[in-house]
Amino acid sequence: MKLRWFVGLLLPLLLLVGGCGAAADVSQARAALARQGSGDIRIGVAWPFAKAGDLFLEGVELAVEEINGAGGVLGRRLAVMAMDDEGSVTRGMEIAQSLAENPEVVAVIGHRNSFISLPTAEIYEKAGLLMLTPGSTAPELTQKGYRFVFRSIPSDDAIGRRLVHYAYRQGHRRMVIYYVDDAYGRGLANAIEDHATGAGIRIVDRISYYGDLNDLKYLHEKWRALGFDGIFVAETIPHGAELIAKMREVGIQEPVMAGNALDSPALPEIAGEAAEGVVVGSVVNFQDERPIVQDFVRAFREKYGTFPNQWAAQGYDAVRLLAAAMEKAGTAEPAAVAETLRGMKSWPGVAGFHTYDESGDVGGELVVLKTVRQGMFVEIE
User: Fold this and answer.
1) ∠ CA 373-379-380 to the nearest 5 degrees?
2) pLDDT, tens digit, for every residue of 117-136?
3) Contact 281/163 with Cβ under 8 angstroms?
4) What is the predicted pLDDT for the residue at 53?
5) Of 93, 179, 168, 178, whose CA–CA distance to 138 is shortest?
6) SS3 of 305, please?
């Protein structure tokens, strides 16, 4: 009864205030409710569920079920509010505003797409609502001095650096970059180009568009004249897989290296034999023998009847990471949880060991290199 009375008293007041004042009041109300320490701990989950179909929600649900079954967090149950952002900036902004205006929500897990996370992060920040994205890799997300914005996936910079260093060790010195012209593609392409320059690999061409097979044939002739010896791909599924298949069709046989967006069973399913040998910089290795990894795989298969993927692991880890930070902070208050996250060192998740810096970016042993062999991904380093 006390909780309902408190919320009922505050909400009418919040409606009377506009702009930054309203955001500040909601932030204060959120902190006050969290400090009360009663009722469910409410977490928003914003993701393109229907469009992606990527097992992310299943990973989230498994973590919540396990945590609640073991007594919850701080003696309270976790309650998830799943909202489909449809892969749309407009819908993502609507969801962000809705969650930001709800003082009972203490954290948001999402969004998947960098082009949605970049504008919504400002809304969450102003509302004092902790945001943890397990999917957005654009480096600029954590370069704005935000206090409440974090990611639990390596940035494009980390993935690009690992791919470039691997390429250099494999003897590559003149490479091409193909990227999708959005926040993800540009971020990864920029990271690859920056690290390539430092590592001694020359980027001889960088493109984001081709028309048809004839265009690819022309590009192949151009790249051969430039002496290229490999291709970096910063694309998503299904377009990245289709690109690789078409490249092989026109005779481009040089090695292909890509970001985690192509770490999907759909790559060999769509590209077929053309996917063989493609290297991806990914974020989880299910061959890892650590108990937390194998226990997760076993529990996921028992519950859903299918093998988990990187997004299932990212959803699972995001919930567990927030729960661990709340337990360590002794409260679900966003400011305290954010401060605790910044002090997390080598937190063990399914997707490696997480260490946070002051910007809210995650480091540690997280980037995994895989390649496709006989239609399956296997770790190569």
Assistant:
1) 85
2) 999 999 999 999 999 999 99
3) yes
4) 86
5) 179
6) coil
